[in-house]
Write a structure and sequence with these properties.
By secondary structure, the protein is α+β, with helices and mostly antiparallel strands. It folds into 4 domains: about 90 residues, Rossmann fold, CATH 3.40.50.20; about 55 residues, ATP-grasp fold, A domain (Dna Ligase, domain 1), CATH 3.30.1490; about 130 residues, D-amino Acid Aminotransferase, Chain A, domain 1 (2-Layer Sandwich); about 90 residues, Phosphoribosylglycinamide synthetase, C-terminal domain (Glycinamide Ribonucleotide Synthetase, Chain A, domain 4, Alpha-Beta Complex). The protein is built from 15 helices and 22 strands. Strand 20 and strand 21 form a beta hairpin. The relative contact order is 0.14. The structure holds adenosine monophosphate and glycine. The site of glycine has 7 residues, from loops.
């Protein structure tokens, strides 16, 4: 069972179904892409209907439940389902705090001496504004809680910083913004390292780079992610070793010290500073989206073997993960207006032609209605291709993207540019 409805969940379901041992995947609630996947079906339950999900899983002997998004994890879905005797890949509510409370995560990092931006925490606007004025810009303002990717402002001026503080305490993010972190602004290049863990052992997947901004040249508003590629050449084997020693291992140790049995993905969003040091920008408690759409197509070890080993605390027994040589790139096709308001319900054409090029078309926000795929979200599709080089992967990806059409569709034409330009 895969819980969620985005491109990440379509990629998880697709990859799970490649394992000979996986008979069927049920997606809750899934999307138009998972509805069309062979041996996959959607079940119209809410992601927060823990009781309904648990009952279905028990009656149908579901062997493994993989939870995609952070919201149900932060609401305790893993705790609930584990208590029913079900096997779950995804951390408990206590573990999910690493994403659900930036203040909690920062305290853990400070205690464990994990390299990260210096930060101070505030619960009222006046004290926060005094602090911002004393520090000066650039400075980063973050709502403590989950804010659907919108809670962070990288302020280049004092005015921006002050209005971000006022917006958070003014209720823009609800309860999530009643506590605010003010952070040192880091510079450098970002890389996402998704690691799988069973609470005792932690192993990184291939490093990926995400493109968070809506506009080409990494400009404009932050989004959930407009494209990605893997492996990110920036994260050399030597750097990956440092990330393992300086970040992943000590974070897992700090979780254990807090009596947290963390079984799932620990996603480290890292800044590689100009001096070449990795620092944590944020942790997530789940697979990245769209990073998953480029990492999983390169994984040769059966996914269900890896996830079950984590859920059953046997990761140390697993041989090293096997990866396809080469690169994968993903371009997200979004609705006009995203990440602000946008329309849904447009007919999407060219999907069979895109797939015929050999590319993978993961659905992010679509639905199947009377045999027609309709747009049903802000990020609509994620088109992925694998190639022998990053350039090769990108050429194939864009060829497939160009076969697809719906009204107002938007995508960035410069995915991967940083790794290509010298
Ligand atoms: P998040 O919503 O936590 O993923 O953060 C969104 C983006 O804000 C990150 O991907 C970074 O580009 C940027 N960011 C967050 N924290 C910092 C920081 N301390 N310094 C510089 N940029 C940051
Ligand atoms: N692509 C960023 C995230 O999944 O948080």
């Amino acid at each position: 069972m895969v819980v969620g409805s985005g491109g990440r969940e379509h990629a998880l379901a697709w990859k799970l179904l490649q394992s000979t041992r996986v008979q069927e995947v049920v997606c809750i609630p899934g999307n138009g892409g998972t509805a069309q996947l062979e041996r996959c079906r959607n079940l119209a339950l809410g992601m927060n209907d823990f009781e309904g999900i648990g009952r279905f899983a028990l009656v149908n002997n579901i062997a493994l439940i993989v939870v995609g998004p952070e919201a149900p994890l932060a609401a305790g879905i893993a705790d609930y389902l584990q208590a029913q005797g079900l096997t779950v890949f995804g951390p408990t509510q206590a573990g999910a705090q690493i994403e659900a409370s930036k203040a909690w995560a920062k305290a853990l990092m400070t205690d464990a001496k994990i390299p990260t931006a210096a930060a101070a925490i505030f619960t009222d606007a006046d004290t926060a504004i005094d602090y911002v004025k004393a520090q000066g810009a650039p400075i980063v303002i973050k709502a403590d809680g989950l804010a659907a990717g919108k809670g962070v402002t990288v302020a280049t001026t004092l005015e921006q910083a002050i209005s971000a503080v006022e917006a958070a305490f003014g209720g823009q993010f609800g309860a999530a913004g009643q506590r605010v972190l003010i952070e040192e602004c880091l510079t450098g290049q970002e890389v996402s390292v998704l690691a799988v863990t069973d609470g005792l052992t932690i192993r990184p997947l291939l490093p990926a780079q995400d493109h968070k901004r809506i506009g080409e040249g990494d400009t404009g508003a932050n989004t959930g992610g407009m494209g990605a590629y893997a492996p990110a050449p920036l994260a050399t084997p030597a750097l990956m070793e440092r990330i393992q020693q300086e970040i992943l291992e000590p974070t897992l140790a700090a979780l254990r010290q807090r009596q947290i049995d963390y079984r799932g993905v620990l996603y480290a969003g890292l800044m590689i500073t100009p001096a070449g040091d990795p620092k944590v920008i944020e942790f997530n408690c789940r697979f990245g989206d769209p990073e998953t759409q480029v990492v999983l197509p390169l994984l040769e070890t059966p996914l269900e073997t890896v996830l079950l080993a984590c859920a059953q605390q046997r990761l140390a027994e697993l041989p090293p993960l096997n990866w396809t040589a080469g690169f994968a790139s993903c371009v997200v096709i979004a609705a006009e207006g995203y990440p602000d308001s946008y329309q849904k319900g447009y007919e999407i054409s060219g999907l069979p032609q895109a797939t015929a090029t050999g590319a993978l078309v993961f659905h992010a926000g679509t639905k199947l209605k009377q045999q027609q795929i309709l747009s049903d979200g802000g990020r609509v599709l994620g088109v992925t291709a694998v190639g022998s080089s990053l350039q090769d992967a990108l050429t194939k990806t864009y060829a497939a993207v160009e076969a697809i059409h719906f009204q107002g569709m938007y995508y960035r034409r410069d995915i991967g540019h940083r790794a290509l330009s010298p």
